[in-house]
Automatic annotation (TrEMBL):
The lineage of its organism: Bacteria, Pseudomonadati, Bacteroidota, Bacteroidia, Marinilabiliales. It comes from Sunxiuqinia elliptica. This is Lipoprotein. PROSITE patterns: PROKAR_LIPOPROTEIN.
């Protein structure tokens, strides 16, 4: 009898141990514990990234940087008199917006996936009283490679491989108009000729009020056939191997994501995105 009880206890311990190890594995890349509500919010953010252009940064080495989501809050100063004052924002009315931003910063701070850096940053210019912010994700190894390959451009800012993604983004966002456009073009993974056209078209629009004729090269995402990963190119340009190679690499990754995505669905069809990323990066660590 004692032997049977002992065996049952050992069996229960092993089951609990396996479950505990599995749970630890599932949360391996969390920096600290979060509650169920925060987990839902985190999954919603990561799902949006995976289902759109950020897939090509989160699970692939295609885009050095991708947008996950954009935000807009009525917190920007529109009173020129307050530019020299310390008390600018009415906290009684606007603390709710700051709390939302704080929550977003907390959420992205709870994950630490290898080679990824999440950044929530404000745009320099406001639109009336609206301050726009954007949540992006970087593939750090691609960023370092880009800073090295394009050293003749990024070097002017003192940006070199190893520079923190937040510093790169802050420098780019606050640089001059055309330098800012070129930098964003490179960061978003557009081909060189498309980045050149991006800048040239803006110069033409600014100086001569002329919109250069263009076509758009569309790379689909899980949730959108167009408008996710897209760049403009000259109307007379014929896409080359540069474009087709980028397209094929992206489609290969997208098809892989479609295959594994169905294994990470909740009963309500929402995506267990953090679990998918956890499993993906654990397998990468194991097989590297």
């Amino acid at each position: 009898m004692k032997t049977k009880i002992m065996l049952l206890l050992v069996g229960a311990f092993l089951i609990l141990s396996c479950r505990t190890q599995k749970n630890l594995a599932r949360n391996y890349f969390l920096t600290h514990n979060i509650n169920s509500s925060q987990q839902e919010q985190l999954d919603a953010l990561l799902s949006r990234g995976l289902d759109y252009e950020a897939l090509y940064t989160l699970l692939g080495k295609i885009k050095p940087m991708s947008t996950i989501r954009s935000y807009s809050f009525p917190i920007a100063n529109t009173d020129s008199i307050k530019k020299t004052k310390a008390d600018v924002l009415d906290l009684d009315k606007n603390q709710i917006h700051l709390d939302e931003i704080t929550n977003l910063q907390h959420l992205i701070g709870t994950v630490d996936y290898p080679d990824l850096e999440f950044v929530l940053y404000p745009f320099q210019k406001n639109r009336k009283n609206r301050r726009n912010l954007q949540l992006v994700v970087f593939k750090e190894s691609l960023l370092d490679s880009l800073l090295e390959t394009k050293a003749s451009f990024f070097g002017q800012f003192g940006l070199v491989p190893g520079t923190n993604a937040s510093i790169v983004l802050s420098t780019v966002e606050n640089s001059d108009r055309y330098e800012r456009l070129r930098a964003y073009g490179y960061l978003f993974g557009y081909p060189d000729y498309a980045v050149d056209f991006f800048v040239e078209a803006m110069v033409e629009m600014k100086e001569n009020d002329v919109l250069l004729p263009r076509n758009y090269f569309q790379i689909p995402s899980f949730s959108a056939k167009e408008g996710a990963f897209v760049y403009a190119y000259p109307k007379k340009h014929i896409p080359t191997k540069v474009d087709s190679s980028l397209y094929e690499r992206s489609i290969t990754l997208l098809n892989h994501y479609r295959d594994i995505r169905q294994n990470y669905l909740n009963p309500d069809s929402t995506l267990k995105a953090s679990e998918l990323l956890n499993d993906y990066y654990q397998s990468k660590l194991i097989f590297q």
